[in-house]
């Protein structure tokens, strides 16, 4: 399904450095990475799988729900539950600009687009061409949605340019998560909201050792419980909440 031309134009206007050379207006994804396979250094198996052809095809319906259930345990939220919780945490309103970092196949981005209509903009950002190709092909694409292939660690937007930012199931796969959090903080407007889902290593030593080993083997950083909250507080965030399930955490805060 075609991406709305007006939404795409609004995205281009927001970028600190729009694409150099001819901007393929027929391309539904604004691409700032060009021929690069990804932005930044690779971190391991989990990240590489996101760039395959097979995983994006099953990501939204099977891959993410199944692995999410394993990571969150039997009592953690479902994918629908995650989305509902995120909508509440971000406090989206018509006219808002919201950035979905590591958007994958765009399930959250599309929901955000509906929440900020009319007059708003939902930007789905990812580094994987295959994920974005699946995202733009989805049906029921709101006309407030635009997609961007760019670096998630160093966001290509001016300071204080988005009202809300979501980054689910990705921060632990970034080569430099601290730099990413700093970029998130700079990009969100004062009073804007942030919501994250990432790893959360348990304190019980046998579980901690196993989770650390599993993270290292798959190229995923295992954050300690309370670590993300402390980082956000140091960056000037307030109203910080955290919810744990299995080896995951959902953290929200106000800039």
Automatic annotation (TrEMBL):
A Pfam family matched in the record: Methyltransf_11
Domain Methyltransferase type, residue spans: 99-195
Keyword Methyltransferase: yes
Protein's GO biological process: methylation
Gene Ontology molecular function: S-adenosylmethionine-dependent methyltransferase activity
Chain positions covered by the region annotation Disordered: 15-42
The entry's keywords: Methyltransferase, Transferase, Ubiquinone
Keyword set includes Methyltransferase: yes
Protein's name in the database: Ubiquinone/menaquinone biosynthesis C-methylase UbiE
Origin species: Amycolatopsis marina
Lineage of the species this protein comes from: Bacteria, Bacillati, Actinomycetota, Actinomycetes, Pseudonocardiales
């Amino acid at each position: 399904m075609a991406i709305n031309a007006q939404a795409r134009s609004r995205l281009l206007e927001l970028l600190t450095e729009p694409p150099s050379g001819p901007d393929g207006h027929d391309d539904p994804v604004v691409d700032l990475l060009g021929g690069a396979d990804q932005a930044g250094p690779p971190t391991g198996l989990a990240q590489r799988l996101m760039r395959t052809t097979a995983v994006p095809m099953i990501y939204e319906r099977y891959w993410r729900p199944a692995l999410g259930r394993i990571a969150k345990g039997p009592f953690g939220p479902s994918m629908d539950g995650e989305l509902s919780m995120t909508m509440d945490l971000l406090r989206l309103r018509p006219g808002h600009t919201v950035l979905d970092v590591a958007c994958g196949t765009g399930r959250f981005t599309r929901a955000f687009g509906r929440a900020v209509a009319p007059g708003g903009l939902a930007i789905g950002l990812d580094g994987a061409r295959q994920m974005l190709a699946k995202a733009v092909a989805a049906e029921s694409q709101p006309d407030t949605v635009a997609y961007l292939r760019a670096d998630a660690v160093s966001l290509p937007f001016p300071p204080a340019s988005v009202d809300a930012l979501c980054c689910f199931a990705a921060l632990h796969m970034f080569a430099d998560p601290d730099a990413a959090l700093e970029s998130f903080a700079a990009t969100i407007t004062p009073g804007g909201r942030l919501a994250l889902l990432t790893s959360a290593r348990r304190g019980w030593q046998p579980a901690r050792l196993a989770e650390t080993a599993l993270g290292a083997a798959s190229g995923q950083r295992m954050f300690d419980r309370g670590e993300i909250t402390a980082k956000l507080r140091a960056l000037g965030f307030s109203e910080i909440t955290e919810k744990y399930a299995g080896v995951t955490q959902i953290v929200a805060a106000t800039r």
